[in-house]
Amino acid sequence: MQPPAYQPIYKTSVARSPRRALLSLDQSLGEITGPVFGHNDIGMLDNDLIRNYAKSGDPIGERIIVHGRVLDECGRPVPRTLVEFWQANASGRYRHKKDTYLAPIDPNFGGCGRTLTDENGYYYFRTVKPGPYPWRNYVNSWRPAHIHFSIFGTGFIQRLITQMYFEGDPLIKTCPIVNVVPDKEAIDRLIAPLDINAAVPDDCLTYRFDIVLRGRRSTLFENRLEGN
Amino acid sequence: MPQQIAYLKETASQTAGPYVHIGLIPHMAGFDIFQNNFGGVLAGADTPGEPIAIEGRVIDGTGSLVRDALLEIWQADANGHYAHPADKRDAAAGFRGWGRTGTDFDSGVYRFDTVKPGRTPWRNGKISAPHINVWVVARGINIGLQTRIYFSDEEAANADDPVLKAIEHKSRVPTLIATKQDKPGKATYTFDIVLQGDNETVFFDI
Fold it and tell me: Rounded distance, CA B15 to CA A126, Å?
């Protein structure tokens, strides 16, 4: 279930949520299509946040791999789609000129990356585990550790931005942004389990995060498009 | 008990947050990291079609500027062809039809440089007026908002557009129409997006 626009527990949504109902749109070519990306768009290190901003050494923090698959609601893999991600460093500080949290910037950590899914919808990237950070919602609000994800899919209707959380983080249940999602099972699907079998011994732990995009709605009766 | 159909559930959306720039337009966050960057320029001098710019602001329910929004647009080329395998007609070479940018931290203004799209096929043999699909995310927006830009100098096509015609409250139609600025040079359209309140932009559930 998707979060409603207006969720006053997340204060910024109060003035940034439409008051009128969304207008349901019959999908046409402009909605079922979307941008196509290729390997020329991204660089060799774009999915390695441990190395893609390294200046004098590796970033400080818990070395992890995040991996998973991008599927649609029918369980079909979404191949060759762009997955982008960004995050704070190990101490919860973002490399962003508007972030003024007192925790320090890591000189070797940029905090963003991107990759294309393979033929099976699989993606992975390497990074350090982000730290929690405070934000001005309630007087003592802290975001759980999280990584932001942006996923395209095959059409503009599938465009999605979300956040991945880490298994066992006690801040998840108190976070107003997490709890804009009204469905506990949907929240659980945003929490990546530790995937110890995919860890690299003596190197990295691994978390698993699968992403499901909207299925393409059938237009079978309308114009008999193939591939329903 | 009827049989259950085992669909997966769409991953829940979460806000892009205040630092969306880091991941998607890092130069706005204040650093350079990728060799190739995505931006708000969709068309170059070689792109066929009429060069246009679209400028606007995003405004919240208090009338304040939203200075941390990220916008993406998706459009057909000047012939109305999409650069996507589902459109069997070839799009103009080198024209991806997609771009992204943010609202400026100071002025709150966003800008895209592109070409004016052609008319595109709709459903059941009908034709759409020239339009651009828009997707807006920001801190405080729990799920990306989808809207469309139409053009003020396409009155006849707009009057016949199946989506605009489907809007029951006709007073809301102008919220989707970008206004051509009366100034020489490159045709420039103003398209402000009002998230809430008077003249709230029409957003679509697509």
Answer: 23
B contact residues 89-148, partner A, Cβ 8 Å cutoff: 96-98, 105, 120-124, 128, 131, 133, 135, 137-146
The catalytic position among A10, A53, A123, A133 is A133
Q: Is A148 annotated as catalytic?
A: yes
Angle at alpha carbon of residue B29, lines to B27 and B34, rounded to 5°: 40
Distances, alpha carbon B158 to alpha carbons A64, B55, B154, B173, in Å:
52, 20, 6, 10
Pick from A32, A156, A177, A217 the residue to mutate for testing the B interface (most B CBs within 10 Å).
A156
**Structure token pair of residue B133:** 């699909």
User: Which of the residues A9, A29, A45, A191 would you substitute to probe the B interface, choosing the one with the greatest number of B C-beta atoms within 10 Å?
Assistant: A29
Global confidence as pTM: 0.96
Catalytic residue, chosen from A51, A63, A95, A148, is A148
Query: pLDDT tens-digit profile of A108-161?
Result: 999 999 999 999 999 999 999 999 999 999 999 999 999 999 999 999 999 999
Query: For residue B70, what is the nearest residue in chain A, using CA coordinates?
Result: A161
CA A108, CA A57: separation in Å to the nearest integer? 6
* Per-residue pLDDT tens listing for chain B (206 residues): 788 777 899 999 999 999 999 999 999 999 999 999 999 999 999 999 999 999 999 999 999 999 999 999 999 999 999 999 999 999 999 999 999 999 999 999 999 999 999 999 999 899 999 999 999 999 999 999 999 999 999 999 999 999 999 999 999 999 999 999 998 889 999 999 999 999 999 999 98
SS3 content of chain A, % helix, strand, coil (to 5): 15, 25, 60
Task: Give A201→chain B minimum CA distance, Å.
Answer: 29
Catalytic: which of A53, A94, A123, A207? Answer: A94
Of B9, B21, B105, the CB nearest to A189: B9
The reply to whether A133 belongs to the active site is yes
- Cα A199 from Cα B115, distance rounded (Å): 48
ipTM of this predicted complex?
Answer: 0.96
CA distance B157 to B191: 18
Joined tokens for residue A112: 């963003």
